[in-house]
Fold this protein.
Amino acid sequence: MRNVMGSWPFVGGFVLFMALWAVVNTVLPGWDVYPFILLNLFLSMLAGLQGAILLIAAKRQDAVAAALARHDYETNIAAKTDIETLLEINRDQMQLIGELHALLIRREEAAPHAVR
């Protein structure tokens, strides 16, 4: 309903309806004479209804935004855990590389003339 009432076709149709109402009730002997009291009543009811619809739509939009924010937070927490795991693996690999490097240096010092 929010998408319908917030569209240009609705605005055009609404203006056309009001113009037709005014013409019919001015030219022909209608049921709602010139100050158009009945039309004013309908417009007031429509304005109240549109206000409520806009508030409901805003509330729904906030709920969707909150759900998306929660999903983003949970994704960030999962990514943080994965990154910490990868960093730990990287530290272990660096330690192993350091140990291998030290082992190669000792081996080279023990046999300096060995063929490589």
